[in-house]
Fold each of these.
Amino acid sequence: MASLVRQLQSKAAVATEIAAKHGSSYYKQLLENNKQYIQSEPTVQKCQELSKQLFYTRLASIPGRYEAFWKEVDYIKQRLLARNDLKLEEVGIAALFAGECYAWFCVGEIVGRGGTLTGYRV
């Protein structure tokens, strides 16, 4: 067990050394590759303008998303009306998805109330 911990520590030290050595060059390269997205004048007014543009762009996209949502609902309705033609694979995927959504809801409720999944508080 002690040798495993030492191996893990040495690998972590090597990874830290590599990150320290190449981190700044990666950062500079990332900024250079994406310089078209960087504002030349980073002022408060420019930031406020960009946030308003984002907000109103998102607001303008609501009708398109609304239509896409109702298309999906219509598709599901059609599939349910023709449920005799459904394959077992499609039913299984739908059941798995519903179960996963329900499980996430339950886990969210447990965590939101301050509980833990195992029942033990740390």
Note: Residues 19 and 69 are 44 Å apart (CA to CA).
Amino acid sequence: MRKSLILLTIFLIAFFSFAGCTQKEKLEKVRVGEVTHSLFYAPLYVAIGKGYFKEAGLDVDLQTTAGGDKTMTALLSNGIDIALVGSETTIYVHSQGAKDPVINFAQLTQTDGTFLVSRKKVDSFSWRDLEGTTFLGQRKGGMPQMAGEFVLKKHGIDPQKDLNLIQSIEFANIANAFASGTGDYVQLFEPTASIFEKEGKGHIVASFGAELGKVPYTTFMAKESFLKKDAKTAEAFTKAIYKAQQWVDTHSPAEIAKVTAPFFKDTPSDIMVKVIERYKNQNSYATNPILDEEEWNNLQSIMKEAGELPKQVPHAELVNTKIAEKAIGQ
């Protein structure tokens, strides 16, 4: 009897160990490159933290690729499978006659995610205060810079004539350059902007997102060949993102901060809550992954105003909404 019990125990341990290994092996690895690491992408971290990708059978390998050009290079060279970056990059690739175009298939953010940070504390800010100052801008041709210029022009400021505009600094080094004393104003993502404010390195005076309106600022994209070959993977990925978007939309900044905290270990919890609240209040987080035609046209208007639009591209040519529509059950 005792021998039988021992054999049964060994069998059960072996069975569940095998079952666990099998379950783990079933997860399909997907390499994702994010253009920067920011709470602006909270739904992505929620999808990982809440286990939504694993539920969908995916093992997401997330890496920060620091900058639109580097992110797109990683995607085109098969260093990553999916990129999270500004939709303008797909237009640039398309204009170069790519045989395997990059297609936007799931939108994550729907406003600009940057804030205007002043070195000095300003009691009553006016956009005209920027005239004659040194402005530390983003990379030329990138969405942050084009969005920033669009907002400045909206307030009657010519970035090339009315400012000392610096665009020569690498994306990943902009914050450090400002902290080291370069510029009177800088355009920064969160949580860096709020951390600088807390540390007395700068003061947030305005939001580019609140000024700009809705655009497909950051989307998940992949090469057309990947979306055809791995259609089920793209669908599973998008379903997980949609689930996370819905969770973020219906939960408080404090709850979201708790889930995303492991991804921002050096960021104080009070800063995280403040940042997420700021993004939620200006509707930066898309509540579903569909990139619609109106937003696509708004993007191209901004690019055209900045002199960076190679050629008008129809929505249907570089945007696949079928994956997102299927993900939300339309």
Note: The mean pLDDT is 91.
Amino acid sequence: MKKLLLSLAASMAVGAVWAYPDKPVNIVVPFAAGGPTDKVARDLAESLRKTLGATLVIENVGGAGGTLGATKVAKAAPDGYTLLLHHISMATSPALYRNLQYKTLDDFEYLGMINEVPMTLIGKPGLPANNYAELSKWLEANKGKINLANAGLGAASHLCGLLFQSAIKIDMTTVPYKGTGPAMTDLLGGQVDIMCDQTTNTTSQIESGKVKAYAVTTPKRLSTPALAKLPTLDESGLKGFNVSIWHGLYAPKNTPKPVVEKINAALKAALKDPEFIKRQEALGAVIITDKRVEGAEHKKFVEAEINKWGPVIKAAGQYAD
């Protein structure tokens, strides 16, 4: 009788896996609604729905630099109905937060990467430097007087700023804001000098000529019309400089393999969806088409990012409890 019950239970479990999804799937976004990561999630949900055939619900769980939302998913039932869409903070939080409530490489199933968003180095309108060579001289001549804006601890602009200071070996006064909006407002008003932020936040300001644009942070120049003439930091002399804000999809550890495979297949289909590609390109994002769309390669990439950012963050001594 016991063997029969175990067999029935196993059959029911297998049936549940193959029926997946038979109810709405929650995608947790660990930031407030309306931001770049939220936009990626909502666009992706539309495309995933076409393949999975289920309703996908975006749940915004902001706070603590994205770690509250990530913690919620790490502790969720491993059934495929609670997923996490997160950005580069997935790799930087282990160094930024000393009391992290999850283990980045151990507590999730890696489902695949989605996109990469380039970044731009920009300056206030009145900055005397008109290109990166002139900016480099200006930075050297104004050591101890430079204000570098960012959107808060762990934000893309914070991370890019840390790596930039490390690369040029010049310390600046970091000015954190509660979001990109107020940081950009003060940059436009001349209260701060420079900022490094995502193309999703800077392209319109560059295109309108409201800020000075100096370089992009990717190894290759961008094809976006407004940014095509901007040199890369690598070609400008900072060899190997490469920062982009990437997004990936995750499930709680021990989510059944068939469910993981089904979600990964749906993700791959979404990344080829013309509508999704069009929406992402409008944001300046580049869709992932290489081997990082596979869970194992996605995880290898995140581990490499942890190793890349850890020393930079620790050297800066900027932590959160």
Note: The mean pLDDT is 91.
